[in-house]
Amino acid sequence: MVGLRWWNHVDEDGKSHWVFESRKASAQESKTVSEAESRIFWLGLIACPVLWVIFAFSALFSFRVKWLAVVIMGVVLQGANLYGYIRCKVGSRKNLTNMATSYLGKQFLRQSAGDEQTS
């Protein structure tokens, strides 16, 4: 909807890696994603954790302990979702540059190692 995505993948060594991506701004993107849609997305993304926190205080002060576990899970999951999208929006520019530099460096090393073996 707003050109952001994030996920987790596990490599061959069993290490977990988080990937945060955002689509580059272009003329075509402005046609597909309107300002209103973007505002609705971010408003909903921010309002949901706030609503879960209100539910948490409500469950805590009304002594409904059995619902408190459900509400805490809602806060944690919505908070993680908000964190992921904020990280995509803010941190993806640095991350994409680092990934591209790393990839080009590996390709250069492979090519230079291949050239040395053929000589």
UniProtKB/TrEMBL annotation:
Location within or outside the cell: Membrane
Transmembrane segments: 40-61, 67-86
Its membrane topology: Multi-pass membrane protein
Ribosomal protein as UniProt keyword: no
Keyword field contains Electron transport: no
GO biological processes: protein secretion; vesicle-mediated transport
Keywords: Membrane, Transmembrane, Transmembrane helix
Family stated for the protein in its record: Belongs to the TVP23 family.
Protein name in UniProt: Golgi apparatus membrane protein TVP23 homolog
